[in-house]
Amino acid sequence: MQTTCKALLASTLIGTASVNAAELEVTHWWTSGGEAAAVAELAKAFNATGNTWVDGAIAGSGSTARPIMISRITGGDPMAATQFNHGRQAEELVEAGLMRDLTDIAEAEGWKDVVHPISLLDACTIDGRIFCAPVNIHSWQWLWLSHKAFEDAGIPVPGSWDEYVKAAPALEAAGKIPLAMGQQSWQSTGAFSVLMVAIAGKEIYEQVYADHNAEVAAGPDITRVFEAADDARNMSKDTKVQDWNQATNMVITGEAGGQIMGDWAQGEFQIAGQVAGEDYTCLPGLGVNEVISTSGDAFYFPVMDNEEQSEAQGVLAATMLKPDTQVAFNLKKGSLPVRSDVNQEAANDCMRKGLEILAAGNTIPDTNQLVSPDTNSQIEELFSEFFNDRSITVEDAQSRFADIIADAD
Which of 127, 147, 189, 392: disulfide with 383, CB 3.0–4.6 Å? Predict the structure, then answer.
């Protein structure tokens, strides 16, 4: 009987939209070619319910978009739905009563039965209530390598981080930039976290970011990570681009040997018509430690005064997690679906690698789920300086990092 009621509620949510159609402004920071193709799939699915998706893309990545989104919500001019990453980014907005409770929709749609890993839904849950709809699983732990760049340099495509570092001189001699890295702080910070998991391992990563263990952060394992980060900044020193997708394009064109970037980079390779395993290689865990983080994107729904818009919000939340929507969106986005029951036959070589790692349970939480936005901002500031100023020594940078971890919340 309970299942029947849940199904009835879900169908009512969808059916209502066709009668009382509404326009919903949806804000996000998906503006690259691959991202735009992916978000178009969400819009298509929502528009099919009789409602209208009004796109509110904000260029400049999440660090640029989030303050704008938060300012609008707290200033009384909320959008109908907005993207945030899984984690604590919207925590204060929820606690202030500015975000809609989606528990009824989640129960009607059976999200707890299909969302995997369940930590994605847990990240949306505060005091037992669900406040967001997770739409994908994104992992940072990937090294993308250009076959053309290594062929031009006359050397084989490396299979691990150490091999890649050793290949850097040959790439430079061939006029290539060994490592492409955009100049935004979140990119260098993300690369450092990837290096930490690959080189120091999952346990050390969790002791630093989850347990906030400053002693470990100041210890020899993290020293090795900073030494690898020093290699990375030397390999990327000639990169002049700002945005991550511009750096990805350097790999696609063979201008750069590789890039440390999350699996959303797959969308750019796909748009360019490149084939995984033929035109580029993806190494999860930098080919050293095959672990992936289970972060990603979720949508929150600010409280609305308009009844029709509120009803349409429920339709949009439900639609985002429908099996067909999940497949269409994530194939374009390069991410993994949050549902464990969708058809994955169309997955490419890199997505299959990710799915195998996920199935094996070799996962870690993302740093956004472990530290506050304030702590994360301090870490980003540190790595922005470290990667742009090579006079900052490994010792000095590690000392500052340990101090941040000691005060982390």
Answer: 189
